[in-house]
Amino acid sequence: MENRIDWIDCAKAIGIFLVVLSHTDVYYPVEVVIYTFHMPLFFVLSGYNFSFERNPEFFDFMKKKFKGLIIPYLAISAITYLTWFFVGRKYGDDLNMPVVEWFEPIMNALLGYPVKMIHNIPIWFFMCLFVVEMFFYILFRRKNRFVWMIIAGILLLIFVAWANSALNPYVLPFTIPTALYAVVFYAFGYLLKQSKALAVNNIIIVIVEALIVLLVAYFNGKVAMHRNIYGNPLLFFAGGIAGAFFIIHLSRYLSNLFKSNKLVCYLGANTLVICGFHLQTFSVIKAIVIYVLGLSLSVFSQKIGLNMLFSAVSILLCIPVIWFINRYLPFIAGKSNLKK
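The structure assignment produced for this chain is given below.
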């Protein structure tokens, strides 16, 4: 079994909670702050985990990542498409949306157009991360020992990402437009590990990171990577990096304070499944609220406390799904061995 780092699992657990919370009808200013950094956090952590030494051959690396990301993407997409086709499109928000032909979600999932994947938009991250890791490997394979070359590469990537957004009128498939931005965060994560910057642990730095996130959220407004909405690209990168580093520093502190929390580590190790199935647990909770409790969903609107509770219950409902998949269908979680 792969050795895991507690603070990374803690950071991923916090990150996936923020992802789930951002998909509720949460208080809008809170939503803006979350969107500033919650997805950049996962790309930074993925870059931090990457090692050329563990992956010396590109095609072996590509096959491993295909099994770990694309196979789960296709499997979860197929499962959630069926739930959408037979149940989801007949109830709830989908009733108030324009008619979607049965084949459209399938086509858009295969082509990697996140906004049109009405059956399960959040899984765009899987395909995007796969593309990001391929980009990064090809671009930086010969530069892994030279920090200044990585920095130069990051600056070039920022320019390419901006140029594509500003000058290219066409939306490229396979989440490539988003990947051009996301690979910058991945490279920062890799650089973070190479530079040993986490050895610096100063409360002033943490406060500055939090302030940067709040200021960027205020001045840049809501961003959405899957929609390729970034506002000012420089502000977007600043807010994403500052927010990711803030969660990383917070997670390292919490891990040192509480040591290994089994639930947190478990959730952090299974964020892929939570990402893929939390919207389905939303439907279960909403059905209970409406048909069992007899309440309107408006009780959750713009109420941060209730939405945090809603998110926590959603994640807890994902735990049996995680157990079942890890035990009987590990390929859906990108794993090769059965887990008890």
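Interim note for the steering committee: The mean pLDDT is 91. The first helix runs from residue 6 to 22.
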